[in-house]
User: Which sequence fits this backbone?
């Protein structure tokens, strides 16, 4: 699988042992969140995942800093931006995380809820403010610059269709089902493009363009900027193209961006701007989805399904875990 036009050098800090350790962390969060599937309590499900992920991190020998987390310190009691995790020994690691991507999905027992994280060497992940981001993603195998946020959805669909050797109406786009996307959806319908509307699960939606089995060709629309960095980490590992541009609704959000060092408010971020150098991405399914099966509780124990990737090697591992019910992470 291609990762970028330039080789990504293996990090000295991201020891290969950390690859499977990251799976253990997302497994812990997913199993904790799974106890709240279908219970209608988004906050409780998120809190369970956060607490479990934090405890799992603190068993690891690294000096970790959360650069994308549950919010700023005064908004989030755990896994807030700037929080230190790990035992404080070993390599310095930056962490982007979403302990439960799809809180509403989990509360309603819907598809595609995930526990997700990405790690890189210190300074390797963009400190994205918690604002919206306009996003565009396509899978691997296409010429760089084929699509762009500077072009209209119609232009991007037509360019992608031409490169794929099909008509525009044969392209399938994935879009978050939100009122803010009404004009986007109408434009896509106008050219006959197929649309897969998803209720939530921004990271899984962007990643879906890399899996032919989903039949999704392109991901379009706005969602959280932190989720954009997580999706970019995944695409850095498995290939594809991603662009993001921060969206600001008011002066408070612009000020928040300046606080995190964002000076060019109109910048289009490419993969290499969001994730620099080597990175590890891990996700575990909470509920069944197109990417991963969810947590299953059986009389014999608990089963999980995860994926973990590393940018420098391009390796993708699919991990099925079988855990005793009393297993402690």
Assistant:
């Amino acid at each position: 699988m291609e990762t970028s036009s330039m080789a990504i050098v293996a990090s000295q800090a991201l020891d290969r042992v950390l690859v499977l350790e990251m799976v253990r962390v997302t497994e812990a969060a997913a199993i904790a969140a799974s106890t709240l599937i279908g219970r209608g309590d988004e906050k409780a499900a998120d809190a369970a995942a956060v607490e479990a992920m934090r405890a799992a991190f603190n068993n690891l020998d690294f000096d970790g800093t959360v650069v994308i987390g549950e919010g700023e310190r005064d908004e989030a009691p755990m896994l807030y931006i700037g929080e230190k995790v790990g035992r404080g020994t070993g390599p310095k690691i930056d962490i982007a995380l979403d302990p439960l991507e799809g809180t509403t999905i989990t509360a309603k027992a819907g598809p595609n809820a995930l526990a997700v994280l990405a790690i890189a060497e210190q300074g390797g992940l963009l400190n994205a403010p918690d604002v919206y981001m306009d996003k565009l993603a396509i899978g691997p195998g296409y010429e760089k610059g084929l699509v762009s946020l500077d072009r209209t959805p119609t232009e991007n669909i037509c360019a992608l269709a031409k490169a794929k050797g099909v008509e525009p109406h044969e392209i399938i786009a994935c879009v978050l089902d939100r009122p803010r996307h009404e004009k986007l959806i109408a434009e896509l319908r106008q050219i006959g493009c197929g649309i897969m509307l998803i209720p939530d699960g921004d990271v899984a939606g962007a990643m879906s363009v890399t899996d032919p089995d989903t039949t999704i060709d392109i991901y379009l629309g706005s969602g959280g900027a932190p989720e954009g960095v997580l999706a970019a980490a995944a695409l850095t590992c498995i290939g594809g193209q991603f662009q993001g541009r921060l969206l600001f609704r008011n002066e408070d959000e612009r000020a928040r961006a300046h606080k995190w060092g964002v000076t060019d408010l109109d910048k289009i971020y490419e993969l290499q701007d969001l994730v620099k150098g080597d990175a590890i991405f891990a996700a575990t399914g909470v509920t069944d989805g197109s990417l991963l099966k969810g947590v299953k509780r059986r009389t014999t124990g608990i089963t999980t399904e995860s994926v973990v990737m590393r940018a420098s090697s391009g390796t993708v591992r699919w991990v099925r875990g079988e855990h005793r019910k009393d297993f402690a992470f």
Notes: Residues 46 and 142 are 37 Å apart (CA to CA). Confidence is low (pLDDT under 50) at residues 1-5.
